[in-house]
Amino acid sequence: MEEIRIYRQSSLYTASAWLLVFGRIGIVAMLLVFALLFWSPRDGRFVHPPGWWVVLIACVGAGTFAAIWAGVALAALMKCERCGRRPTIVWDLKALRAVPRSEWQALRDQFYPPELGSGNFQCAHCKTRFQLRVPT
Ligand SMILES: [Zn+2]
After folding, report:
1. How far, in Å, from the CA of 128 to the mean position of ligand 1?
2. Domain ranges within the chain, ordered by starting residue
3. How many other C-beta atoms can be found within 10 angstroms of the C-beta atom of residue 109?
4. What distance in angstroms lies between residue 89's CA and the mean position of ligand 1's atoms?
5. What is this structure's pTM?
6. How far is the CA of 135 from the centre of ligand 1 (A)?
7. What is the pLDDT of residues 104-121, one digit of tens each?
8. Where would you tag: which of 9, 42, 45, 63 has the fewest CB atoms within 10 A of its CB?
């Protein structure tokens, strides 16, 4: 059994993971808002979105953008305590495909990362497992 260490930047990890989840929810919300356009009045081939729609897409878009940006910024601040690299940022797409899962599971993980449920995560580079500190 490998020992699991407590990750010192636990709150940063949790905040970053949730912000990215909010960002993904925001992207889905934007698609739904765009779908509303199908019901807006149209003039021949051109759609004239009502004023509230423009406000809605601007708010959802700004919120989504801010959440993703903040999530990535926090992820960039994190440092693996063993290898010193950023534990959640991987440029190698092969690493992301490494775990074989069902599509449904992969989709669910986008909105509820298993790391947040299990309270531990693995550094993407050196594979060290870290325990997330439970906020008291
Ligand atoms: Zn590492």
Report:
1. 6
2. 5-132
3. 15
4. 11
5. 0.83
6. 23
7. 888 888 899 999 999 999
8. 45
